[in-house]
Write a structure and sequence with these properties.
Layout (H helix, E strand, L loop, with lengths): L1 H9 L3 H35 L2 H49 L3 H7 L1 H25 L2 H16 L4 H45 L1 H6 L3 H53 L5 H42 L21 E8 L9 E8 L4 E6 L5 H7 L8 E6 L2 E2 L5 H7 E4 L8 E2 H5 L8 H10 L3 H6 L7 E2 L8 H15 L3 E5 L7 H11 L7 E5 L11 E6 L2 E6 L1 H7 L1 H8 L4 H4 L1
Length: about 575
């Protein structure tokens, strides 16, 4: 999975990778020749006192070392460039996949793990690519080349190579087996701590309002402690690994000096050859150590690659069909035909056999008790979810046969929880109307009763908006979201309890101002405040996911007990009538 993921995203950078391989090969070859040249200086130049030979060979060594430095710099440069590019593409793939998910898909993973997979997991794979490009050529060539060069110097000491290298590989292999499950736990613990931290930052006002800082601190400390415990276990294995590797290196060095010294004493080996053999053995073991560093990163990168692949290869539950409707027969209309919907895993459906039509130029209101399915019904129109049974039609076409772009162009939603993005007032209003001019934005603000407070801001339309719109009040945030929908000039407006944060006077002014820009559009309003919907052309009364009554305000006052109960809970019937 890891290799497939890397290969899939490295194709555009094959020339950079080729450059890395070439320069790594040149660096490794230069490194292998240096001990041999050094041995020739000792055995020929020093022993025979040939100063000219020492200078000539020394000059060659300097030239080789200079080439080694240049090629090493070039290899690292192209390796880093390739790794960063692959990391960028992986993050883009994760982001692109997540933006195509439905609300149901996002809930399946969870926001915290999606953030971790797009950041920390990608970083682990990116670091493996960087280390791999730096070591994947040099390590095996240095190891194999070092063995060959060492045997050229002296075959009698070759048994030291055949003993030390397998021992080192066994030690590393055993430790990697123990590291694999720990790295998977570590990524899960990072998900957990991200989830707690994200929840606390998002709900900081609630935490402070109820003085729950000590409790939330305990929650964070618990998540932090779980991550720490796994990190300590990994650290313990690393602490064990490096002394073992160091011990093997030192024992191998001492063995070469001990047995090689005896061979030099008996005349079976030259001093220069012993020095070169020692350097080659160290190169071999260093190459194995480089492989060890890779081995330490591979288990975690494999886990991360699997997690990334889960996101990027997941087929969204809601996708555009290849054969979609190109033109709508009845633009500006919404129709529900015997729609039933239930959330995944729910025991009972939220909506049952819903049928109604919202026509162009008319206002349809939806009322009902909390949990009756009002917001769920609205979410089916922009296809945040798909109906389990029946059909939802937008503009006379089934919503499942429309592309997301078509739905977005036809339907504008003001959600129950208004959300603004970091940027400016203008950038938020242009979210659904990219090319809208300033005058169009001011018109939308004027209708939404937001013109005054935006004009009062120092920068007007260019005034800064923080993430989530936390630097404006709830009522201002709600009005800006309404203005955002108005700026898009859609054929259908969906207002999901979008006037709840407004005072009665502002609500009345806003409803009066909405008549002109929405006169040729279908308007569907979910409301708790009866005064907001008294002028609606039709009112649907929901109870336990079913439409129990429908009609105008006056008709429902006469015929629907459920509607009467809702009205009398707010105002006297005579007052409303």
């Amino acid at each position: 999975m890891l290799l497939k993921l890397i290969l899939r995203h490295s194709k555009p950078y094959k020339w950079w990778i080729a450059a890395v391989l070439f320069f790594q090969l040149a660096t490794t070859i230069a490194t292998l020749f240096l001990p041999s040249l050094n041995a020739r200086i000792i055995d020929t130049g020093v022993v025979k006192g040939d100063t000219d030979f020492i200078w000539r060979t020394g000059g060659v060594m300097l030239a080789v070392a200079f080439v080694q430095v240049l090629t090493a710099i070039a290899a690292v440069y192209f390796g880093a460039k390739t790794a960063m590019a692959i990391g960028r593409d992986l993050r883009h793939s994760v982001f692109d996949a997540v933006t195509g998910f439905s609300a149901q898909d996002v809930n399946k993973f969870g926001a915290a793990t999606l953030i971790t997979r797009g950041t920390n997991d990608v970083q682990q794979v990116q670091m493996l690519v960087l280390m791999g490009l730096n070591f994947m050529v040099s390590a095996p060539i240095m190891c194999i080349g070092g063995i060959i060069m060492a045997l050229r110097e002296d075959v009698g000491l070759s048994w030291l190579v055949w003993v030390s290298v397998p021992v080192l590989l066994v030690v590393v292999g055993v430790l990697v087996i123990f590291l694999m499950p720990l790295f998977r736990q570590m990524q899960d613990r990072i998900d957990g701590i991200n989830g707690v931290l994200r929840e606390q930052i998002t709900g900081i006002r609630v935490v402070r309002a109820f003085v729950r800082e000590p409790h939330e601190t305990e929650r964070f400390e618990e998540a932090n402690a779980k991550l720490t415990r796994v990190g300590v276990k990994v650290g313990n294995l690393f602490v064990l690994m490096f002394p073992l590797i160091g011990m093997i290196l030192h024992i191998a060095t001492a063995s070469v000096l001990w047995f090689g010294g005896h061979r030099v004493e008996t005349g079976e080996m030259q001093v220069g050859a012993l020095t070169a053999f020692l350097q080659y053995l160290l190169q071999i073991l260093i190459a194995v150590m480089m492989g060890t560093f890779m081995a330490m990163m591979i288990p975690r990168a494999i886990v991360c690659a699997e997690r990334i692949d889960e996101v990027t290869t997941m087929t969204p539950s809601l996708t555009d069909q290849h054969e979609h409707v190109t033109e709508m027969d009845a633009p500006g209309t919404i129709e529900f035909r015997n729609v039933t919907f239930g959330y995944p895993g729910a025991e009972a459906p939220v909506l049952n056999n819903i049928s109604f039509t919202a026509r162009r130029g008319e206002t349809t209101a939806i009322v009902g008790s909390t949990g009756s399915g009002k917001s769920t019904l609205l979410n089916l129109i922009p296809r945040l979810y798909d109906a389990r049974e029946g059909q939802v039609l937008v503009g006379g076409a089934p919503v499942t046969k429309l592309t997301r772009a078509q739905i977005s162009a036809s339907v504008a939603t003001v959600p129950q929880r208004p959300y603004l993005f970091s940027g400016t007032v203008a950038s938020n209003l242009r979210f659904g109307a990219e090319h809208a001019g300033d005058e169009e934005l001011w018109d939308a603000l004027r209708t939404a009763q937001a013109e005054d407070f935006v004009a009062a801001r120092e920068d007007g339309l260019n005034g800064k908006i923080s993430q989530g719109g936390t630097n404006v009040s709830g009522g201002q945030r709600q009005r800006l979201c309404i203005a955002r929908a108005l700026a898009a000039k859609p054929e259908v407006y969906l207002f999901d309890d979008s006037f709840s944060a407004l005072d009665v006077a502002t609500d009345a002014h806003l409803r009066a101002a909405l008549k002109e820009p929405t006169k040729d559009a279908a308007v569907i309003i979910v409301a708790q405040r009866i005064s907001t919907i008294t002028a609606a052309d039709q009112i649907l009364v929901l109870d336990h996911g079913e439409i129990v009554a429908r009609g105008t305000h006056e008709e429902l006052l006469e015929s629907s007990e459920t509607y009467q109960e809702i009205v009398t809970s707010q105002l006297a019937v005579e007052e409303v009538a």
